[in-house]
Automatic annotation (TrEMBL):
GO terms for molecular function: catalytic activity. This is Endonuclease/exonuclease/phosphatase domain-containing protein. Residues 26-145 form the Endonuclease/exonuclease/phosphatase domain. InterPro entries: Endo/exonu/phosph_ase_sf, Endo/exonuclease/phosphatase. It holds the Pfam family Exo_endo_phos.
Length: 381
């Protein structure tokens, strides 16, 4: 196919080239209404996928749904739903998460029929290159479809919260750093002392980790470059003993760094259903990208005003919950708990926790998860 845009019955395809990054394919579609035409449309997409090797984005109005929840009533064509799902699987496409909305089309009746017809799909290699995208709906001013806006621009770099890394437990100097940081804080209030000690430990571990391991990805890139140069050199001459020794050490070091990167990515992905070794680093990174797209807060609406900057959103969230906490609301009805719950002795609930109870609670925590906002996982506790 030529690199200029070309059109088929229901789609327009072009190759997108940006100032930075590799080129990728873009296909914009408008799906037909009749069932027979929909089957031809899906075959058309299969042929386009063959003609678009490499990173590929597929978007538009498909006039098809994937799941029951894509429509607000039970009038569904499950045969077409199954065909559409098989098409997505055959083309190895992943749907971009739509933030804040469930439907993209309305028949403008009362009551309305709402359907999720407009979608954005992409291949895994496109997602690897554009993992920080944000998809949302705009206002449907003159159309019965809500326009989709896909923002691929870098977002504002917010302060990174502390995350305890599991592999720290096996690094030399970890226990000394924790003991030093833990003993550096003294406070008469036991609750405040615990919070301050956790904060001090988090700061010490972060600086210790930066000094001891540095940036793993940068080290892996440097190792790959040096190994490549040694491989090229040995095609023309015999490597000297120091060069051969360094090449072997670099390969051993690279395997260790790759293992650390996989462990970090797995912890970030928060997948508990897999055993160690069941998936690779790329899979974990893609899972992290999906979590980011789904959970990242890009803006807040307060009294009709949209707040998008990080500092403003943090202040708005703090003010909202600060007003809720400790506020007594006037209630028109109340419950007489004495009529619902039989009286019993509850003095045992005021008893202090025993060491065995605390130990059992810590041991029952799920692995690789932090029970609180301080970032320390069950492995650390």
């Amino acid at each position: 196919r030529p690199l200029r845009p070309w059109s088929t019955t229901n789609a327009i395809t072009a190759k997108v080239t940006t100032a930075t990054g590799a080129p990728w394919w873009l296909t914009v579609v408008y799906g037909p209404q009749e069932d027979a035409d929909k089957i031809s449309f899906m075959q058309e997409l299969c042929e386009i996928g063959i003609d678009c090797p490499g990173p590929w984005m597929l978007c538009g109005d498909f006039n098809l749904i994937l799941r029951d929840e894509d429509k607000n009533n039970g009038n569904l064509c499950r045969r077409m739903m199954g065909r559409f799902r098989r098409l997505v699987n055959d083309l190895a496409l992943k749907e971009m998460y739509l933030n804040g909305r469930r439907f993209t089309w309305s028949n403008e009746q009362s009551p309305p029929t709402l359907v999720h017809l407009d979608r954005v799909f992409c291949t895994s290699d496109w997602e690897d290159a554009h993992g920080d995208c944000h998809l949302r709906c705009l206002a449907a001013v003159v159309s019965d479809h809500w326009p989709l806006l896909l923002d691929c621009s870098p977002t504002h770099a917010s302060h990174r919260r502390f995350h305890f890394e599991d592999f720290w437990l096996w690094l030399e100097g970890f226990h000394y750093t924790v003991v030093t940081a833990w003993g550096s804080v003294q406070d008469p209030d036991p609750f405040r002392r615990l919070v301050l000690r956790l904060q001090a430990t988090a700061r010490k571990l972060t600086s210790w980790s930066a000094r001891s391991k540095g940036n793993i990805r940068d080290k892996m890139a440097i190792s790959r470059e040096l190994i490549s140069r040694f491989d090229k050199a040995q095609e023309d001459r015999v490597l000297s003993p120091p060069e051969d020794w360094l090449r072997r050490q670099l390969k051993i070091s690279y395997l260790g760094l790759a293992s650390l990167e996989r462990m970090i990515a797995r912890q970030r992905a928060r997948i508990t259903t897999l055993k160690d070794g069941d998936a690779n680093t790329t899979f974990f990174h893609r899972q992290c990208s999906f979590h980011w797209q789904k959970n990242h807060i890009h803006s807040l609406t307060v009294d009709g005003h949209v707040i998008a900057d990080q500092e403003g959103m943090a202040q708005a969230a703090f003010s909202h919950f600060d007003e809720l906490l400790g506020s007594a609301l006037t209630r028109g009805h109340s419950l007489d708990l004495s009529q619902l719950i039989e009286p019993c002795d509850l003095t045992s609930l005021d008893a202090p926790f025993s060491p065995d109870e605390i130990g059992n609670a810590v041991k029952s925590l799920p692995p690789r998860k932090a029970p609180g906002p301080d970032g320390f996982t069950a492995e650390f506790l």
